[in-house]
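Curious: can you check?
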Amino acid sequence: GLPDELIQKGKDLKGVSEIVQNGKHFKLIITTGSKVIQNEFTLGEECELETMTGEKVKAVVQMEGDNKLVTTFKGIKSVTELNGDIIT
């Protein structure tokens, strides 16, 4: 996993996320300070995503319900919940 120092640094960072959806295709742009990460994926298809550490990983993103994006990579499951303009 990540060192505790990096985990805490990630928790302290505030960023802006933009999600553009076109059917099953998503474009996600995350801006944190001067760092910008742009990922694109289609639900249910394997894709390559860039993580906050700059690592590129193979992942599959699924939609759970109407508002949860579930990303699985390297045995890790990440859930992003969309509530209007709020992402958790």
